[in-house]
User: Which sequence fits this backbone?
């Protein structure tokens, strides 16, 4: 199963996602794509199998992924303090992959109708969904 984890800024959410997925989904091959080198480095340190940086890496990664994971801003052009380009958001939105979006409310984007969970609880939910998609019982 090819999982693409996309993150921006310091890569903190992506780092937690990569670590949790690696620990709980044995057959996951994780490609970490950061919008900047700091985010990519953080996700590689957390155990991603491959890493790349920038707009074109997001576009190419979205074509090859079975599952795309990241903060909800990865589908919103100019989100994450401008690090998500329109081309990146389009690639994520038009990908045939399943998208698992972490509902982070910041950068002028407010997500309503969801429980206020901690980042660690949301990361665990991501793992649960991936395991379900992989056909594994929890």
Assistant:
């Amino acid at each position: 199963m090819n999982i693409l984890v996309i993150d921006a800024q310091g890569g903190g959410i992506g780092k937690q996602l990569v670590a949790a997925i690696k620990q709980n989904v044995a057959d996951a091959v994780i490609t970490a794509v950061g919008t900047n080198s700091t985010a990519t480095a953080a996700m590689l340190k957390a155990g991603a199998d491959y890493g790349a940086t920038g707009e074109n890496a997001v576009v190419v990664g979205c074509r090859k992924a079975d599952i795309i994971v990241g903060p909800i801003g990865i589908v919103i052009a100019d989100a994450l303090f401008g690090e998500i380009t329109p081309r990146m958001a389009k690639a994520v939105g038009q990908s045939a992959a399943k998208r698992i979006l972490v509902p982070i409310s910041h950068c002028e984007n407010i997500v309503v109708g969801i429980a206020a969970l901690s980042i660690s609880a949301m990361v665990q939910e991501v793992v649960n969904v991936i395991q379900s998609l992989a056909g594994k019982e929890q």
The chain has a mean pLDDT of 92.
